[in-house]
Amino acid sequence: MELQHFADEWGPEKVIETYDSKIGMKGILVIDNTALGPGKGGIRMAPWVDVFEVFKLARTMTWKCALAELPFGGAKSGIIADPSKISKEKKLEIVRAFSRSLKPVCPSMYVAAPDMATGEVEMEAFAKENGSMQACTGKPKEMGGIPHELGSTGFGVYNSALVAAEHIGLKINGASVAVQGFGNVGSFVSKFITEKGAKLVCVSDSDGCIYNEDGLDFEKLNQIKNETGSVKNYKPGKILNNERLFELKLDILIPAAIPDVITNKNVDKVKSKIIVEGANIPIAPEVERIVYKKNILVVPDFVANAGGVISSYVEYIGGNEKDMFKIVEDKIRRNTKIVLDRAEEKKMSPREAAMEIAKERIKNAMK
Ligand code: NAD
């Protein structure tokens, strides 16, 4: 795919392809837009990764960082390699070579992070090779990293849900909630929302779905998941087909697992008052419009699930765990409210409102 097929008024500013013949490292960096600050985005390692995929992910980061009101632009990088076919040592060697090759633009114009097949071990290698701790986020705790296991994204999704509930005058205490997925995002959002008094009636994971109209106890659910591998073994409860979760009469529905879960096929059956998108693209844009027309309040993914990137920002500025929770809460609440208010005022969908706000912020910085 040639640059002219996707370049527009927003970017990309730089598309860099790097190659180290000695190590066998082939890498790509797309810095989409730096009007608000250095481009932020993870390093994806996969055999299929190409410039167009990296560009699309970089563009998503441009909007996400702008909407989260972070002093970051959007970027993303990729290393073309199959992580299942190389040793851990070779993987680190490749990451170090990639880091060396990006030194002219990192951290001045690009701040890396983990993505598919890269984690804190790779970030440690990347930052050390670069020489600056600001070269990437997602570093180990000993290097100032803020661990993913604190649940920043789930905490943000939870805060977004609170604001959405307030927006339609729904009391969170006793509100019925279902969460698809019980991984990093789904388990933390379940934890925080039940602590606030909501009634978690249904949860699913890749192995099954459990329902109890009187509510599921989070601690017990978490224990069952850890001990048996699936939430479906929780008792008392009724095991449902995974798709049934989307058809329940609910106050709040939180997809927090995989893309495209509400589609043309099941959108008519969705009965929740609010949907907060914890996962990325759980509803394709054209289906999201149908949901909007059904008068269901949808908080779009890049508004609700920005807790992770906000946590990265806190790591970048040298903050700690306490700062992270405070900043995620403040930013997610504020931005969810701004988006929902604008959507109502201008009679547009929350996604349209969110895009408009993100673009305004970038345009103002580009002046
Ligand atoms: P994870 O791998 O920790 O958990 C995924 C969960 O989804 C698991 O419980 C898995 O069993 C479940 N799942 C998979 N297929 C399912 C199915 N068909 N039905 C029901 N459950 C199913 O992943 P995560 O980090 O929690 O991420 C979840 C989603 O949120 C992804 O779309 C991810 O891109 C998005 N997201 C995550 C973060 C983050 O910081 N973790 C940030 C932004 C967006």
What is the helix content?
Answer: 40-55%
Tally of DSSP helical segments: 11
Task: Please identify the structural class as seen in this structure.
Answer: alpha/beta
CATH topology of the largest domain: Rossmann fold
Order of helices and strands: EEEEHEHEHHEHEEHEEEHEHHHH
CATH homologous superfamily name of the largest domain? Answer: NAD(P)-binding Rossmann-like Domain
Bound molecules: nicotinamide-adenine-dinucleotide
Report on this structure.
The protein has helices spanning 51-67, 88-102, 120-130, 152-167, 184-195, 218-228, 285-293, 301-304, 307-316, 321-346, 350-366, and strands at residues 14-20, 25-33, 39-40, 43-46, 73-80, 110-111, 176-180, 199-205, 208-211, 238-240, 252-255, 274-276, 297-299. The chain is of the alpha/beta class. The protein has a seven-stranded mixed sheet with strand order 10-9-8-7-11-12-13, with helices on both faces. The longest helix is centred in the last third of the chain and has 26 residues, at 321-346. The radius of gyration is 21 Å and the shape is globular. The model has no long low-confidence stretch (mean pLDDT 97). The chain binds nicotinamide-adenine-dinucleotide.
Topology:
Layout: E1 14-20, E2 25-33, E3 39-40, E4 43-46, H1 51-67, E5 73-80, H2 88-102, E6 110-111, H3 120-130, H4 152-167, E7 176-180, H5 184-195, E8 199-205, E9 208-211, H6 218-228, E10 238-240, E11 252-255, E12 274-276, H7 285-293, E13 297-299, H8 301-304, H9 307-316, H10 321-346, H11 350-366
Parallel strand pairs: 3-5, 3-6, 4-5, 7-8, 7-11, 11-12, 12-13
Antiparallel strand pairs: 1-2, 2-5, 8-9, 9-10
Helix pairs in contact: 1-11, 2-3, 4-5, 4-9, 4-10, 9-10, 10-11
Bound molecules: nicotinamide-adenine-dinucleotide (NAD).
The site of nicotinamide-adenine-dinucleotide has 20 residues, from helix 5 and strand 8.
